[in-house]
What we know:
The chain is an all-alpha fold. The protein folds into 2 domains: 1-193, Leucine-rich Repeat Variant; 232-341, no CATH class. Helix content is 60%, strand content 0%. The protein has helices at residues 2-12, 14-32, 79-91, 95-108, 112-120, 123-129, 136-149, 153-159, 163-172, 178-190, 204-213, 216-230, 236-240, 257-275, 291-297, 299-309, 315-335. Helix 2 packs across helix 4.
Amino acid sequence: MGEARVAAGLVLGAGACYCVYRLTRSRRAGAAAGTEGAASARHGSAPAGGLVPQVSGLSVLSSLQSDTDLPKSPSNLDAHHLQKLLHLLEFTDDPLIQEQALVTLSNSAAFSVNQDIIRKLDGLSVIGKMLSNSIPKVKEKALNALNNLSMNVENQEEIKVYILQVCKEIELSPLNSDLQLAELRLLTNMSVTNDYHHMMTNAIPCFLHLLSEGNERTQIQVLKVLVNLSANPAMTRHLFSAQAPSLLSLFDNCINKEILLRALMFVANLNENMKNEEGIITQDQYSEDTVFSLLCGHSTQNTKKLVCLLHHHDTEVKEQVAKIITQLRGDTKTRYSVKLQ
C-alpha cells in the first residue's frame, strides 16, 4: 500500500509537470521530428505526430497522496518513481487512477532519458495493455503515452506489435473523436520510416474514407499518414488500388492550406514512384474511383484542377502543383499505358 501511495502522489504531480514539459517541447520535437510542415514532398516522410501534451486537473487521488517529497519535473522522475507508477497502472482497476497515471507517464516520456527507462522497465507492454481497456478516455491516454514513447527508435520496435490493433480500432472509433485522432497520431509517428508500412496496408481504405468523411483535424492527421506511406515505393500499388472518389475535391483554392498541401505531397510522391516503376501499369488494372483512375485515367479533370491551383496565394502550394504538372507532362506518354474514358 505504501508503494501505491507514493505512485499516486506522483500522479498528482502531472499538472505541475506540464509547465516544464511546455518549456522543453519545442526543443525535443525539433530534435526528434523536425518543424511541422517542413518535410519535403518526396525526400523524407511527412512530419511526425510529435509529442502530445497532457494536463491533469483532477484530484481524485488526494486521499492516497503520500507525504514523500515528489519531483517537481517529469524529467526528474527516476527509475524508482517510474516503476511505482507502472506498478500502480498495472494493478489498479480504477479508470480515473489509470487515466492520471498514463498522463504522468506521457509527460515523463517527453524526455528521452525517461523513454529509455520506461522501455527497460517493460513499461511499453504495461501501457500497451491499456489499449484493450473498455474506457475510451483510458485508451486515449494510453495512445498518447505510446505516441510520446514512439519518438524513440528502440521503442518503436516494441510498439509495432500494436499497429494492427490500432488500425482496426481507427475504423471502430467514433468519427472525429479524440480517441480516433490519438490512434492516427500514433500511426503517423510509426510510419515516418518504411519499416512498418506493410502492417498498415489493410487500413488504407479506412484512411481514404476518413479523408472523405472526417473534419479538418481528422483530414490533416490522415494525410500525414498517407504522405508517409506514399513516400515508400513499395506502397504505391496498394495506394493506387484503393477507392477515393472525393480525392480530387481537395484540389481547390478554398481548401484549408494544411490539407491541400499534404494532398499535393501525397500525389507528388505517387507520381515520383510511378516514374521509377519498372514495367507498365495500365488503367485496366484499376477499377473506377480508385486513386490511380482519378489521378491518371481522368487526366483532363485532374489537370484543370491543378492549373487552377497555380493561382493559389501560397508559394509552397504553387511549387507542389508545378512539380506535379511537370511530372505528368514528362511521364504520362512514356511511362503509363492509360486508356482515357
